Amino acid sequence: MHTFFLYFGREWSLMFRNTSSLIQPLVFFIIIALLFPFSLPAENGLLQSIGGGVIWVAAVLATVLSLETMFYTDYLDGTLEQSLIHPRSLSIAMLGKILAHWSGTGLILSLFSPVLCLTFNIPSEQIWVLFTGLLLGTPSLSLIGAIGAALTVTLRRGGVLIAIIILPLYIPILIFGAGMLTQSAQGLPIASQLYALAAILVLALTLAPFAIAGALRATID
Q1: Average pLDDT for residues 102-130, to the nearest whole number?
Q2: CA 177, CA 140: separation in Å to the nearest integer?
Q3: Sign of the CA dihedral 50, 201, 68, 117?
Q4: According to the 3-state scheme, what is the secondary structure of the chain?
Q5: Where are the coiled-coil regions (predicted)?
């Protein structure tokens, strides 16, 4: 736990020193989500039907945008190599780093999503469905995305390659997350989608740290 909190706190301090890492994904998320209401006819039914999916896609793209520099700065200054040779658990260290990354990106995006729902005229009961889905889904986005970031850590411009690697893995999360809103709008239960997102999160929390540690060792060695 000491290793976890050490890396979690370090990542937060670095994010506050470089506030662009906090602001850029949020601004990108807002811009992507707002482009659709301005580009479509002002029909409540149309905006409500696509609003949840648009916000989910915006959250996915904003997460991808934040992944390129997740490990690259540590790679340049030698911190990552020191982490590889240190006797502390690399997988636990990376879990702390990634959850700190999520709290600065996915959590903030989730907290801001109800505001964007107003632009799509989404009913209040569905806003909470979207918010809950994002809270369950965005940690998985960060954990899975970190695997792609670890595989491309030595590349200066690896953003496109990261997207190619991880976007297919994001599809189930996107389907279940957006499907929750569709089910809710039709008055159907959303328990199956919630359980699916929770299962993906548990698998990501369990397996992703080991995959990330292995990818870093293989890439840097």
Answers
A1: 87
A2: 12
A3: positive
A4: CHHHHHHHHHHHHHHHHCCHHHHHHHHHHHHHHHHHHHHCCCCHHHHHHHHHHHHHHHHHHHHHHHHCCCCHHHHHHCHHHHHHHCCCCHHHHHHHHHHHHHHHCHHHHHHHHHHHHHHCCCCHHHHHHHHHHHHHHHHHHHHHHHHHHHHCCCCCCCHHHHHHHHHHHHHHHHHHHHHHHHHHHCCCCCHHHHHHHHHHHHHHHHHHHHHHHHHHHHHHC
A5: none
For residue 205 the two structure tokens come to: 């929390």
Residue 140 CB contacts under 8 Å (≥ 6 apart), including other chains: 173, 197, 200, 201, 204
Contact 197, 142 (CB under 8 A): no
48 and 182 Cβ atoms separated by less than 8 Å? no
Buried b (16+ CB within 10 A) or exposed e, 181-214: bbbbbeeeebeebbebbeebbeebeeebbebbbe
The pTM (predicted TM-score) of the whole model is 0.88
Cα(126)–Cα(118) distance, integer angstroms: 11
- In the predicted model, what is the mean pLDDT of residues 128-141? 92
In sequence order, which residues have a C-beta less than 8 Å from that of residue 170 and are 6 or more positions away?
60, 141, 144, 145
- Give mean pLDDT, residues 52-70: 87
pLDDT tens, position by position, 159-168: 778 888 889 9
Give the residue among 133, 97, 117 at the shortest CA–CA distance from 29: 117
